[in-house]
Design goal:
This protein has 141 residues and is mostly helical. The chain has one domain. The protein contains five helices and no strands. Helix 3 packs across helix 5.
Length: 141
């Protein structure tokens, strides 16, 4: 005689146990079938938990990447400020000494930026161009 199929009883499984089962299955320690037997839960439930868990894990990774991007953008902003400050100092030093340090020791792109800063400094001081020691402010009165 055939046994009657009884309605499935729902078993309340705690979150910690769910995570333990998912960890064991995903690490390959036990199969889903074996976990189902060992913990007396349905295979479908384990599949569902695994799907839910991986989605949660992906969201956490996405959020942590967003945080990382935000921190990196802040760091870029800070470094750009430092770079601008250092270029300003170099430009002022070049104007004071009449020497072109940037052209001698820095990459061409940075030297051009410093040259632009020198021109801006000379403009703000009332002079027309910044092309080396000839443009140094005169001390004659």
């Amino acid at each position: 005689m055939k046994e009657k199929n009884l309605p499935c009883q729902k078993k309340s499984v705690g979150f910690d146990l769910k995570l333990k089962i998912i960890e064991e299955v995903s690490n390959g320690r036990i199969s889903i079938r074996h976990a189902s037997i060992k913990y007396k839960v349905g295979r479908a439930a384990i599949y569902y938990w695994m799907q839910k868990y991986t989605t949660l894990e992906q969201k956490e990774q996405f959020m942590s990447k967003k945080d990382e991007i935000k921190k990196l953008k802040e760091k870029i902003e800070e470094l750009e400020f430092v770079k601008d400050f250092q270029q300003q100092v170099i430009a002022e030093a070049e104007l004071d000494t009449g020497r072109d340090y940037a052209k001698k020791w820095l990459p061409e792109s940075l030297a051009k930026e410093i040259e632009a800063k020198k021109k801006a400094l000379l403009k703000s001081n009332g002079l027309a161009s910044a092309s080396g020691s000839a443009d140094k402010p005169s001390t004659k009165s």
